[in-house]
Design brief:
The complex is a heterodimer of chains A (222) and B (244). Chain A has 9 helices and no strands. Chain A has helices at residues 2-18, 20-41, 45-68, 73-77, 80-86, 91-120, 125-152, 159-187, 192-221. In chain A, helix 1 crosses helix 6 (91-120) and helix 6 runs antiparallel to helix 7 (125-152). In chain B, 76% of the residues lie in helices and 0% in strands. With 244 residues, chain B is mostly helical. Chain B has one domain. The radius of gyration of chain B is 20 Å and the shape is globular. Chain B has helices at residues 9-41, 55-82, 85-117, 125-146, 150-164, 167-177, 197-229, 234-243. In chain B, helix 2 (55-82) runs antiparallel to helix 3, helix 2 (55-82) packs across helix 5 and helix 3 runs antiparallel to helix 7 (197-229). The relative contact order of chain B is 0.17. Classes of the chains: A mainly alpha (222), B mainly alpha (244).
């Protein structure tokens, strides 16, 4: 069973490695959105430090949505998705593998870029460290829940915009706890409570999202 | 009597047609009764003066906005589990009413917030979650609108409703999770309500009115949906010939 999961992972990672432009776009989008905020609200270091965690988290959710609309679309286009769903292996593992691959391709580079943007936003080292932990716990949630949206909107007209409309409300708890953790450490109240809730939300998403996404995928392919 | 008979759209169409007038009358009676209590019997609040009367609309609307979402999730789950067409039609018939009640709850909340808090809108947990509930309703309706295939649309919308249903408990418990500006819930099942008995009575009567209203319009809407989807069948043709 885990051999199938590994095969899906390896396949998606190989495809991503051969098409570097695709996933680099999402990373540059993340950097650009975050860089637009100081231009919009002014360069005062105190204010940037105040809004920094929230801005970086919002930019991360938007960047994930940008790449998620392609999660199943390419395989759907050339017909390989139907073959994978028809195979005797469980669809849940297919969805889980694709969501994990999405997180490895988009989430890990985001974790590497975030500290640089954190410095730009005048965050303290402690805050950057908590931001990294919150993104490490939070970005898999975005990939998992996004998988549901990508499966529901597969092959629809204007699927990308619709995906944003459907999935952003579901991202809200991750955004609140993720940005709240960094705010908490900056305000001196500690980040443990927020990080624990974020971890709980991750476990909940991991338990529910792949099943709903697999059901949605079967509905969309009927 | 076998209740499963009414899982068939053709039978339910007739039953719903008979039920609509009863629920419509019930809505009218409870609305007038509730508004009479709200505006003539309920005493003026000692702290909030007359402006508090907005809660007679606000609280039932907020309750219904959450309750309708759960009912939609229930019908969606039944439809997905037992593959019954009527369940999906019920879910679709309920969604617009739920969205409207959510909007009313937000709007009246803003009217109440201006004199009480001095602000139309605060980013408090309950207001924010209610706004997210509105987004969820809009997302589900948009997903239904985007999918032309009825069967796929039904299932996709129900799956989205189910995963969004996790949000409804978060709305309710947000008061305890984040301690912010919004006052805690005044009505609770475990302790005596912290408001006058007439106020509570008016609010409950109007909540029943909102509930009956929801049933009335959902039944009217589900009858339209049944006709639209079953238009190729013999019974709809016979029915239309009889009516015209």
């Amino acid at each position: 069973m885990h051999r199938f999961l590994l095969a899906v992972l390896r396949r998606d990672l190989t495809l991503a490695a051969r098409r570097r432009g695709d996933w680099l776009i999402a990373q540059f989008f993340f950097v650009m959105v975050a860089s637009l905020f100081p231009l919009g609200v002014g360069p005062e270091p105190e204010m940037l430090a105040r809004i920094g965690p929230g801005v970086l988290w919002v930019a991360a959710t938007l960047a994930s949505l940008l790449s998620l609309s392609r999660l199943f679309a390419d395989d759907h286009h050339d017909g390989s998705l139907e073959h994978m769903v028809l195979s005797p292996e469980p669809t849940v593992l297919l969805v889980l593998g694709k969501s994990l691959a999405h997180w490895l391709i988009y989430g890990i580079p985001l974790l590497l870029i975030a500290p640089v943007l954190g410095i730009q936003f005048n965050l303290s080292w402690e805050a950057i460290w908590v931001l990294e932990i919150s993104l490490l716990l939070g970005t898999p949630i975005l990939s998992l829940l996004g998988g549901v949206g990508a499966a529901l909107t597969l092959g629809l007209r204007g699927g990308g915009v619709l995906l944003t409309l459907l999935i952003l409300p579901l991202y809200v708890p991750a955004l609140i706890f993720g940005a709240g953790a960094v705010d908490g450490v900056m305000a001196g109240t500690g980040a443990e409570a927020h990080l624990s809730l974020l971890g709980a939300f991750l476990v909940l998403s991991l338990m529910i999202a792949p099943w709903i996404a697999a059901a949605a995928l079967r509905v969309s392919l009927e | 009597m076998n209740l499963y008979t009414y899982a068939s759209p053709a039978n339910f169409y007739v039953l719903a047609g008979k039920l609509v007038p009863w629920f419509a009358w019930g809505t009218g009676i409870f609305t007038v009764w509730g508004l009479y209590i709200a505006f003539f019997l309920a005493p003026t609040d000692f702290q909030q003066s007359e402006a508090y009367r907005i809660i007679f609309i606000h609280v039932p609307a907020a309750w219904m906005s959450m309750f309708i979402y759960l009912v939609m999730a229930f019908w969606g789950a039944i439809g997905l589990a037992f593959n019954t067409r009527l369940s999906f039609m019920m879910a679709r018939a309920l969604a617009p009413t739920g969205a409207i009640f959510t909007f009313i709850a937000l709007w009246t909340g803003a009217w109440w917030g201006k004199p009480m808090w001095g602000a139309w809108w605060v980013w408090d947990a309950r207001l924010t979650s209610e706004l997210i509930l509105l987004f969820l309703y809009v997302g589900i309706i948009a997903l239904w609108a985007a999918i032309d295939d009825i069967k796929r649309g039904d299932r996709a919308g129900s799956l989205l409703t189910l995963i969004g249903a996790i949000n409804v408990p978060i709305i309710y418990f947000s008061v305890k999770w984040w301690n912010t500006l919004h006052q805690g819930a005044s009505v609770s099942l475990t302790k005596a309500p912290s408001m006058a008995a007439t106020m509570l009575q008016g609010m409950l009567v109007l909540a029943i009115a909102a509930w009956l209203y929801t049933i009335t319009v959902a039944l009217i809407r589900v009858r339209r949906i049944i006709l639209e989807r079953e238009r190729q069948t013999e019974w709809v043709k016979a029915l239309l010939e009889k009516e015209t």
